Amino acid sequence: MRTSNATYLVKKGISSVWKNFLMSFASFSILMVSLLLVSCALLLMMNVNTIMGNIEDTNEITVYLEENVTDEQVEHIKSVLEKNDDLTDVQYVSKEQALEDFRNDMAEYSELLDYLEENPMPEAFLVRVKDLTKIRAVDKALNQIDGVEKTKAPYDFASVLTHIRNTFSLIGGAVLLALIVVSIVIVSNTIRTSVFARRNEINIMRYVGATSGFIKTPFFVEGMFIGVLAGAAAWGLTWLVYDSVFSLFSADLTLWQMFGFYGLTPFEDIMWLVLAVNCAAGALLGAVGTVISTGKYIKV
Amino acid sequence: MVELKNVNVHYSSGVDALQDINLRINDGEFVFIVGGSGAGKSTLVKLLMREITPTTGRVFVNGKNLAKLKGNQVAKFRRSIGMVFQDFRLIQELNVYENVAFVLRIADQSSRFIKQRVPYVLNLVDLAHKARSKPRELSGGEQQRVAIARALANDPGLIIADEPTGNIDPRLSYEIVELLRDINRSAGTTIIMVTHEHDLVKHFGGRIINIDSGSITFDDIIGGQDEDE
What we know:
The structure holds two protein chains of two kinds.
Chain A: H1 3-19, H2 21-57, E1 60-65, H3 71-83, E2 87-93, H4 95-106, E3 124-129, H5 135-143, E4 148-152, H6 155-197, H7 199-207, H8 212-250, H9 254-258, H10 267-297
Chain B: E1 2-10, E2 16-25, E3 30-34, H1 41-48, E4 56-61, E5 64-65, H2 72-79, E6 81-85, H3 96-106, H4 111-124, H5 140-153, E7 158-162, H6 170-187, E8 190-195, H7 198-204, E9 206-212, E10 215-222, H8 225-228
Parallel strand pairs in B: 3-8, 3-9, 6-7, 7-8
Antiparallel strand pairs in B: 1-2, 1-4, 4-5, 9-10
């Protein structure tokens, strides 16, 4: 198709947005809300993953060794731990180091330790688990290593975090799906109204030899234009919402830092990506809504 | 050339709209198709526009079997003919110029060609001075002339005019038929005009095909009164 005729069809589609203003505005609004929630949910997930990563990084299992392990056994256990792909940061803690650490923790009561006749602290390894969801299985495997007395793992904290993440993904996914369906239905209805308003023109176009593509293109432009506008508006709102939440957590608050709320992504780092994704998602939803309406109501 | 061979059209409602039609219209002819209401004229027009296909038999236009056209081939075929309707079928939001330019855009013509062609065809129907008017600002006769200009835009070899005088002042009807005859004579365009106005047909004469209850009952050339005058 010639550029001049393609431009004509694009203009026709965009002008239809204004002619069909009320329905276009309804589509725009619902699409904007959907895309706002989609982009906020994605950004939240992205940062929740960062926070989970932060927490996972501090998530240690202490592997206590038996009382009378030989140096060879210690070396063997160390090599077993280092070869385990689920673990990172394998660190050996000697009896002396353990006592020293305990002494530091006891602070002003540390003098009590001077009354001990021998060092009661066991040798141990501190290891970190790469993936919190595997902590139970990893812990079980560690207990079966020859020379390991017992382990100490933060099961409850890990399982709560994993549960929160899974629940959030499930509910978020269901809400997103519902919003996507609603958006498509609304866009499809808007285009249907537009098709109805232009039914005489469509009929005339058929009689004078317009192809299916020529008749449907303006409706696609209309649906996709509304989608892109909604995507851009949702992007602006996401920026506002995200920046206010970001400034809350990125302030120098030790409490938040303790819970792993650091290393969050500033909006400026991902703004163009978010804009592109929002506009593309808007255009896609607009196009799907148009496909449904034009397929159903325009028979060429 | 238009040719119908053993054409029957049977609607699902049980109506036999056309029965065993055999018809041949040569290039450059001007033919009146007449008949009363429900005779089968509209069905014949629908066949020629490829809006429907015959239940049995074959319809050829310019050597193409219309039943074999698929998808965009139908659109392309419709661009090769000009259609004029009783109710004009102009797009009310567009002005006269745009209504004509519209079909050229559909045919993917260049802007340059459109700028040359539209004033030319509007001049042929004597409406160049109304190019910027909207259809509702024109009389019925003028609107039908715009529709004829639109039908001429793609320089078709065949124009099908379905009751073109049905919605206009009887006095102006003669002007419309005269215009179609001028196009036929000057450009050699084949014209099939469907009408139920016997006075008009008697006045102009020529080849007349009468359809009654779905069958051709008369197909001959008669002399017109305008020739006697």
